[in-house]
Design goal:
Organism: Acinetobacter wanghuae
GO biological process, one term: DNA-templated transcription initiation
Largest sheet: none
Family: Belongs to the sigma-70 factor family. ECF subfamily.
Number of domains: 2
Distance between the termini: 83 Å
CATH architecture of the largest domain: Orthogonal Bundle
Structural class: mainly alpha
Protein name: RNA polymerase sigma factor
Strand content: under 5%
GO molecular function: DNA binding; DNA-directed RNA polymerase activity; sigma factor activity
């Protein structure tokens, strides 16, 4: 019996697995820092929880989508990460309110869409702020935003996703993304105005 075909097939599978793991390692190195910043803001600075959520998202990505291209991984990863975060937030809400299982857990109260919002451009986080602001000041302002506004801002301004992709990741309409992003920009400008001389505040 000729076992060569099976041996070759086994070698091919091993090569594909090695390639996928190598790609995932490079992908993780590229996005881990930004993903952690996003999760730390969403969990109010709980670094351990943020790390767990990011790691779980990577594990799920590798387990279910190792055959996808690296470009496809970006929205898939953030969709998985968003789902992990939502699950964690639901558990936290139920833990805080022991009898909340009798009613629907309301995680966000700013989902009402504003009418006639023009889709804004996606500046870098510093582009509309004073360049002298520190990363800590900006991250602190982001952390003070409602969760969905944080998501919309981080996905669009930090990750550079368009409105359509952001809506898919957040599992909401494009109108909601525009609303959350618009409110996030307004909230950040307001929160940091006293540090930004270009908006009439003072950095002293």
């Amino acid at each position: 019996m000729d076992l060569a075909p099976k041996r070759l097939e086994s070698q091919d599978m091993s090569t594909l697995k090695s390639t996928a793991e190598s790609r995932l390692k490079n992908f993780m190195q590229e996005v881990t820092g930004r993903a952690l910043v996003m999760m730390e803001s969403a969990t109010q600075g709980q670094q351990g929880i943020a790390m767990d959520l990011v790691q779980e998202a990577f594990i799920s990505l590798h387990k279910s989508y190792s055959d996808k291209s690296t470009e496809e991984w970006y929205p898939l990863f953030y969709t998985i990460l968003n789902n992990k975060l939502q699950d964690w937030r639901r558990k936290e809400a139920r833990r805080a309110q022991p009898f909340s299982f009798f009613k629907k857990v309301q995680l966000d109260e700013d989902d009402n869409e504003l009418e006639n919002i023009v889709d804004e451009s996606t500046p870098s986080p510093l582009e509309f702020l004073n360049q002298a602001l520190t990363a800590d000041e900006i991250q602190g302002a982001i952390s003070s935003l409602p969760h969905r506004q944080q998501q919309a801002f981080m996905l669009r301004a930090w990750e550079g996703f368009d409105t359509h992709t952001t809506a898919q990741i957040m599992n909401c309409s494009e109108g909601s993304v525009k609303t959350h992003y618009h409110r996030a920009i307004q909230g950040l400008r307001s929160a940091l105005a006293h540090l930004n001389p270009y908006t009439g505040g003072s950095s002293e």
